[in-house]
Amino acid sequence: MGTKTRRTFMILPLCLxxxxxxxxxxxxxxxxxxxxxxxxxxxxxxxFAAGFTLVGNLLAPWLVSLLETGHKVSKRQGGGxxxxxxxxxMLAAVYAIYYVAYVRGPQHLLxxxxx
Length: 115
Known about the structure:
Blueprint: H1 3-33, H2 37-104
Helix pairs in contact: 1-2
């Protein structure tokens, strides 16, 4: 699998998954803070637009850098198996975040003082 293909198959889904979890946490917090449904919807749309911008400008390039660095290091130190372990670890991290968000609730992704 080439570098461009790897980026396509890993970066975009990871960015969308992280954005989705971010949205879950934001909805949880805004729901308690803003009782008016019209104002809450407007606030959420503004926050989600900012989130899309942050994902495109900050998270995606950071993930590309992380993926390239991790791939080089894991391939150098562990060969083909090291690369597989690296990808499995990345997916396990996403799984753990989603598990907490959907089983325990998005509030458990926040520090206790923010709940």
